[in-house]
């Protein structure tokens, strides 16, 4: 997301967190882009409770709070116009599957895989409807990656994970199916928006295929390690487990993954290049 923000002219090295004490009451920062995201969260309300992170509904509350602060400075109409021009980027779902459904038994005991995918799609729909109601007109939502290639999933689900580390097809297949359902729902929502003459646009970004390409042709991209992370052992650490106390690899650019779930900066840059044409489309519209 930081690469995309820089590409469209946001004069910031990084998009700061909304809750950063230096940002939360700084209107100039709020007007030029902030992040409401919380690492480890997901569309399933159970997911953020597992990792003790901020749920998506609460993130939406923070956005509403941000709106009020803008209204106090540039007025209601000014804020509405500002939000109409803004681009909202949403990426979630991986934690719901990898850390919740496939790792813990609670959701698997309640849902079939298809049922859980549909459950998440409904949560996505509800979130997007609320965001649209707040005045958003340009929304970008990313699919999920080939989850069977995440170091965490390989470690947790391989019979001999420390000696033989390969992508696990059934998890990547689940990701593909979910992405297809997500695209169908987004197309349906866009159809209804168009039918009601709404100017709002919802864009889907595929991160699955670009990441799959990096795995399959990793040498072409300059990666030497594609199935373990740079942080800690590279097999299990993610989010809070990957912290300043952990050892890290000497050259992250040779790794596709930073921790056991999240890509490195180099991999994210390759992702940005893959969906740059979508960004161009959004900006031109």
TrEMBL record:
One of its GO terms (molecular function) is hydrolase activity, acting on ester bonds. Pfam families: Lipase_GDSL. InterPro entries: GDSL (IPR001087), GDSL_lipolytic_enzyme (IPR050592), SGNH_hydro_sf (IPR036514), SGNH_plant_lipase-like (IPR035669). Signal peptide: none annotated. It comes from the Eukaryota. Gene3D superfamilies: SGNH hydrolase. Belongs to the 'GDSL' lipolytic enzyme family. This is GDSL esterase/lipase. The lineage of its organism: Eukaryota, Viridiplantae, Streptophyta, Embryophyta, Tracheophyta.
